[in-house]
User: Fold NAD-dependent epimerase/dehydratase from Kwoniella mangroviensis CBS 10435.
Amino acid sequence: MSAPTYEALKLPSFVETVLVTGAGGFVGQKLVLLLLKLYPNLRIIATDIIEPPNHGITDTKRLRNVKADLGKPDELKGVFDGEKVGGVFALHGIMSGGSEANFPLGYAVNVDSHRALLEATHKHAEANFPQGHPRPIYVFASSLAVYGAVTPQSVVDPKTKPVVPESSYGVQKHCIEMIVYDYGRKGYLDTRTVRLVTVTVRPGAPSSAASSYISGMIREPLQGQESLCPIADSMDDPALDYYLTWVGRTKTVIRNILWAAVVEEKQLKEVSQERIVNLPGIQITPRQIIETLIKYGGKDKLNLIKFKKDPAVIRICDTWAGAFDNSDALKLGFEVDDSKTGYEGAVQDFIEEELGGKVA
Amino acid sequence: MSAPTYEALKLPSFVETVLVTGAGGFVGQKLVLLLLKLYPNLRIIATDIIEPPNHGITDTKRLRNVKADLGKPDELKGVFDGEKVGGVFALHGIMSGGSEANFPLGYAVNVDSHRALLEATHKHAEANFPQGHPRPIYVFASSLAVYGAVTPQSVVDPKTKPVVPESSYGVQKHCIEMIVYDYGRKGYLDTRTVRLVTVTVRPGAPSSAASSYISGMIREPLQGQESLCPIADSMDDPALDYYLTWVGRTKTVIRNILWAAVVEEKQLKEVSQERIVNLPGIQITPRQIIETLIKYGGKDKLNLIKFKKDPAVIRICDTWAGAFDNSDALKLGFEVDDSKTGYEGAVQDFIEEELGGKVA
Assistant:
């Protein structure tokens, strides 16, 4: 249950200010908290479509919170005005369920606003850093959802597996991956893309994402609430073993997003010409989620799992790969959870950090 | 030297009007000519940034020529107003050299105007075809330039070769491939993408494309003009055999672009979930180009080839694959040139169609 390490996470000295978009989201909040913890002298601009939380920081030199719609040129400009941004974490976006339900909104946010942010960062870099100076570091959070045409039994090797998204979300993420790469290739920005693994355990309410049950089956019962298992009929259903699921412990994923800004550009390009890394994950089964629930919450929590197959969810889960090759990421210094104990670590984190150590 | 066949090229009966963009370009002009020849009752809207040629057709019911900048909403709207478009051939674009030289222009044309065209076609379809009616057929011309991280000795199999473009052009084409696929996946349009092979012999002046010499070494000397061979020092240079080059005879490529509109959607999706086909090609060497020049133009034409290595061209040619797996395309009824005689056929076509049968 070894935790991620932070010693090597040194940002280049010219990175005195970083911008985090989607800073009000779960991943964005956790990243801002880690930046605050690791870098006492770093200025952080945190932006989102609603005002992000200030995490108790009232010194606006340290943390500047900006409510901004990055799709609106004047609001985007306002984020950069008067700043000297040396690093960007582009995390904002419409999630998979939302992008599938609202086609124009998905493209407006996941494509158009990201292109606008890229170009704004490029122009900002030209205006603020002299020629020959290292370019600002730009980390784009993509998703393993760009891969489709796979099954839960697949092991994806990025070197031989073409990207075939099965959702508008995957298409949009892949387009921006490519354009982010192009800004890097042209030398406009020092770009890096990380494809996020399913983060677990996500706090908060169930979402419309098909993957929602992966966190939900732990999260709700540990709080004494019912949760749906949409891929199986009962504890005897072999689907509980079939749907191999690729996940990452929240704090490991957050550490790795930050590591993406630290890893050397040269080393990254040697491993991935397009500077894209599939973040490492570990494989769990739905049965393992339930067993871990019982271990940490007690046998009675099983009664809170309501088995009811949902064909729509199953159809989507059928297109998810159960494993990815981690070797490129590990070679580059990204970290991976222990394959045996990592998932329990994620559940313990959730109990400690989100439930204040108390299980219902 | 068998020519492509046209008997099977039946468009669905609801396709009474087709739109061809980039209709003033080489490929666009040839496609319009083929449409005029094969379909006497088809209405063709031909558009380009400059007014496309009318090919001697003065009946504007048969051929409507529109000068339009598809990046301008009102001009794009003007193309569709009052029409009932059942098929689109989206061929317009900034070529590879131009996209690399002018980053914003490449994105404006190769990405933004194509997205606008897709959405305009989608809206047009909703307004003009009732629910349940087959969707308009949308053929997007992409390019094998989306592939990078290969060498002239590579044989690319699309099933195991991820797309890693090495140019803004390749990035832009790949983004639109993905978005075109998304419109198909959502059922908005019946979309098909063909990745064009290098078309030979291209008429006209040498272009800024690195591939320009492939047509140039035949085209200029046959007209008594000098031409540069930028990848070799002399006829003894092994580079003339090393730079395996993947090409298609013009009329075969044009036939295949039209075939993309005819092939059954169901069959296409079975072969390629994302409805993308690498158009078939044949392999030639630079030496073979020169030998064919001598065969059709006489030994003295060799004096018109000026050998002068250009590191910039070589750097790009080093990233081109010398061959692609044709099998998916052939399974779907796309045609391929004869591997032995196809290139000579392309040269004969050029002499007959572009030089009026006369060699200098």
Remarks:
- The domain at 17-199+249-278 of chain B is CATH 3.40.50.720 (Rossmann fold).
- Residues 103-128 of chain B form the longest helix (26 residues).
